[in-house]
Structure formats: C-alpha cells, structure tokens
C-alpha cells in the first residue's frame, strides 16, 4: 500500500526480512519488492534499532547467517569510508537559519478539554523534539511534556499533564496537518511553516 509502504517506516525492516525469507512460498507468483525497497532507499534512517532491522534485508542476509560471514573485507571498507578531518563540517557550516513551526496540543477525550497553539522558531534541520522544547520554554504551564526513552528513541508520554494509558488505550499521536507522522519526535524534522498537531487519541 501507499507506493510500497508496509505499516510505517519503523515496520519496514521486519516486513522486508519476513518477505525476503519466505519468498519461496510465493511460487508461482514472485513478490515484486521494488516499491518496498524504494521506500527504504528514500528514507534517511538515523535510529540504531531501525537501521539494525533494515540492514539484513538490504544486504540479502538474515541474522541467522551472521555467524558465517567474513568481516575482513567489510572492516577494510568501513575504515576507508570514515571521513577525514578535512571532510568534517566547519563551525560556520553548522550554523543554520531559523524556521517557524506552528505547534498545537489538542485533547477532546478526557477531563477538561483543551486546544492550544503556539508558533516557535528553531534552527533549520531541528527535530520535532526541539520544537516541543522551544514551546515548553515559552509557555511551560501549557506546553509542558514528558518523554520516555525507548529503543526507537524518545517517546512522548505526557503533554499538559495528561498522560497516555494502556488501560484506556490512549496515547499522544502527532500529525503534520492531517497526516499522521511516520517518525518519532527524536527524528522527524519539520519544515518552515509546517503545522504540527499533538492529538490525544485512542487505539
């Protein structure tokens, strides 16, 4: 679905591993994996867990085959790929212009309903987590939030004192306009003028 996307960008690695290892069961019809792999190629993976899950599919090897792999060649290759000091960005290159992001928090499910919006400025290339932090700095009584560290990066568990609950099947879901984000707050990078909404939701 969605031009090769299976689930979301986080589930792609496991989905490709599963489909690749069971391709013999697709006979007489072969699985056309081109669209799915194009999704992976176009995404800039940054989280170690996501990279670890997608790499086996990209190299055509499963984790079960790892014990038989010879690492000498790959080790030499990785050493050659390390950037030299001359390739590292200078301090001047790190400086980035500011962008404006509109951020809303919305709760129409529990307790006292609320809907608040703020516009903040962050350096271009900042993650959504930086946007949340900037909003909290400007209005901590409204845009306070809490995160928990997971193997997939930081996960927002509470906003404005309202926390998700597995018993109630509630959580904070993030949207860009009306589209649900496929990345977490630690990796998603909003664009200038983008409107991010955190909506208290059920699953």
UniProtKB/TrEMBL annotation:
It holds the Pfam family DUF4430. One of its GO terms (molecular function) is cobalamin binding. InterPro entries: Cbl-bd_prot, Cobalamin_Transport, Transcobalamin-like_C. Keywords: Cobalt, Cobalt transport, Ion transport, Secreted, Signal, Transport. Cyanocob(III)alamin binds at residues 8, 53, 181, 203. It is found in: Secreted. One of its GO terms (cellular component) is extracellular space. GO terms for biological process: cobalamin transport; cobalt ion transport. Residues 125-197 form the Transcobalamin-like C-terminal domain. Belongs to the eukaryotic cobalamin transport proteins family. This is Gastric intrinsic factor. It comes from Charadrius vociferus (Killdeer).
């Amino acid at each position: 679905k969605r031009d090769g996307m299976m689930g979301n960008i986080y589930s792609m690695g496991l989905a490709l591993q599963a489909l690749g290892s069971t391709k013999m069961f697709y006979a007489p019809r072969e699985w056309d994996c081109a669209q799915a792999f194009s999704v992976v190629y176009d995404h800039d993976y940054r989280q170690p867990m996501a990279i670890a899950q997608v790499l086996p599919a990209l190299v055509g090897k499963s984790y079960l085959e790892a014990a038989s792999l010879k690492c000498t060649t790959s080790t030499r290759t990785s050493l050659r790929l390390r950037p030299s000091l001359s390739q590292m960005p200078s301090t001047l290159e790190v400086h980035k212009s500011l962008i404006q992001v509109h951020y809303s928090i919305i709760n129409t499910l529990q307790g006292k309903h609320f809907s608040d919006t703020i516009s903040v400025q962050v350096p271009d290339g900042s993650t959504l987590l930086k946007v949340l932090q900037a909003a909290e700095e400007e209005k901590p009584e409204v845009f306070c939030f809490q995160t928990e560290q997971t193997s997939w990066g930081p996960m927002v568990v509470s906003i404005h004192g309202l926390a998700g609950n597995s018993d109630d099947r509630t959580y904070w879901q993030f949207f860009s306009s009306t589209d649900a984000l496929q990345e977490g707050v630690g990796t998603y990078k909003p664009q200038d003028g983008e409107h991010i909404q955190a909506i208290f939701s059920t699953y």
